[in-house]
Predict the structure.
Amino acid sequence: MNIDIFKSTPVLSELLRKRGIEGDAELEEFLSPSPKLAYDPFLLANMHAGVDLLLDAIYSGSKIVIYGDYDCDGVTSTALLMKVIGSLTDNVTYYIPSRLDEGYGLNKSAIDQIYQDEGEVIVTVDCGSVSAEEVAYANSLGIETIVTDHHTIKDVIAPGIVINPKAPEDAYPFKGLAGVGVAYKLALALSRNCEIPRSLITEVLELVAVGTIGDVMPLIDENRSLVKYGLRLMRLGFKNKGLRRLAELSGVDYNNITSTNVAFSLVPRINAAGRLGDASLGVRALLSDDDDEVERLCTKLMETNAKRRELQQEAFENCISLVDDELEKGDFVMIEADHAHEGILGIVAGNLKERYNRPVVIVSPNDGLLKGTGRSIEGIDLYSLLNRHSEYFVKFGGHKAACGFTMETENLEKLRTSLNEDVAGLLADNEKLFDKTIEADMDIIVPDTSIELARALELFAPFGAGNPEPVFRFEKVQVVDLKFLSDNKHARFSVMQHGSAIQCIMFNKAMDVYSLLASNKPLTVYGVMDINRWKDRENVQIRVLDIEEA
């Protein structure tokens, strides 16, 4: 890799500058297929204590229970520690709460069940940092606990051993690890104190990559190293049989697998089991080495995901019919979905948020209460907004972009009115609050695009949160050779500028901008530079994100 090319090519050097990549050493690390950026796991507070307790439990034959979460991060974290701790003892099992019956995190009923099953040590993954009451309850039953987590800690922290880079006074250099990243650090620390095959510590990087991407963690700093190595193992054919079969069934070419493939093909299928029922289906698929069992479990994950999509589409269409009435009341969309499946409401809220560019909360009945889930847009801090009205909630949590809560039914109208008033105030301060614009990284002209530039841009991957794909703006271009594909949702065309042309593809939104595409007017095109690979041929193309009149 010749880093001088990146420094001397204006497009590349400007993109790197905007990402804060400066200096030869930093540039080489960012572009390297074998990054070296990683931190000592013992820099995490309480790691020594966690390893000591775990080793005592292993050597004394105590029953260890990995307590996970039902999303992709929790499932991969659980599978990772089951594999690593399972290489040292047979006396390890796992427990994942039901999204529908138990909800997120540690709960006393689960602890009672673990106690009845003679569990002696609980190791949480992707949860537990703020479960002070539950951890104290487990301790009162004689169950020792190690909390591994990555969520923000505000006022309350669990007693005892909490391993979380976001814990108060924790000095770990990188705060962006996923739950599976913290679990991996525990595994790594454990391997320095006992005999764990190096090949196993390497193999589980596939799980780290999938969980990190699935939880939309920033693909920068140490996460970039972890995900790059995990993706490399996948491209070599996968070590994990469950992941490999899931990729094959999803139609993913693992030889060229990317973070985008993982995010849109593997993650939803692992998540689907937890959304509709039993998340342990995903754990079993990731742990099994039996080909027949892997086939059966992965097929079930595919079927569950298909059912999830069906329920999601039905709920989405039902919710759309209610949005217009909601927008007459104000710009905070509060939908009552009485018959929708609770497990898919977060996705539906996200889809509505994308469509209308408004904050959205969907509520549904749950044991005499209302259970709500919300998603927000850039510029509106959903957690802050709802936290102003905490008196309406029985239980509430979340962050800027998403939230979840339970509340009494009679408080719904008061909450709706209050939130609409809050958003009206935000709009008065910023009249462009709901303007949906695509921010381009830089302007470029068609003659400056090339297959060589597109290949160089691929080295900026893996793309995701914190490291998005570079978006280019082409000003005053002419659309030619317009062809609609499949059900007219997609289109292929070329854009001409300064005597040069480049092929473009636009997914999903083509009919929405048909009048512009067919207008023969000069247009401004926003898009990502891709390489279109077909058999042995490669050509550069622009994946168009948006079009407007120049």
Observations:
- The CA atoms of residues 63 and 119 lie 5 Å apart.
- The domain at 308-429 is CATH 3.10.310.30 (Diaminopimelate Epimerase; Chain A, domain 1).
